Amino acid sequence: MWSDAGLVAGKDLRIELRSRVALNQVLPFSFVVLVLFAFALDPDRGVLERAAPGLFWVAVLLTSLLATQRSFAVEAADANRDRLRMSGLDPAGLFLGKAGAVAVQLLLLEVLLLVGISFLYGIALRSFGLLALTCVLATLGLAAAGTVYGVMAFGLRVRETLLPLLVLPVLAPVLLAATRSFEAALAGAPRETVGWLGLLAAFAALYTVVGLFGFGPLLEES
Hints:
mainly alpha
């Protein structure tokens, strides 16, 4: 399973490095979202600073949809879907590889977006350990849930529009918990992050288990 996961994740990441879609499209999209929020709320800097954690995670959430769609769009071309089914790779390894590649891209993006909100919104970043832990747990949940719902919409012609309808309501707890954890960390109140971090960990664990056992049947049905 782990060997297959490494092969799939390496393949997806190499495709992204060579195509530069993440660099040329996904990253600019994320910064445009932050800039638009800055323009909308700039007259009141206090509101902008208070809303920064939520705006950060809204940008990450929207970007995770693009990354997930891109991950499965690659497999939809040139009958790669059928080759993926017939490859003999462990379905759990396929899930971990797909989700892992999305998670790596999102984590790199989040580092850049943290710099972006610090510059655009004037946010003083503190409690880096808690911020990093929040990013890791939230990213695992986003990648796992996105991959599960991505394979559900894999074989449909309307997958580009169906995926957001399926996954956005499900990811609401991640958006809420990650935002509240960021707010507490930036405010210097680490104890208040414990419950929210627990929710993020539970969400990530739940969808990881669902993906490990359900990715194979979902892929066959897609």
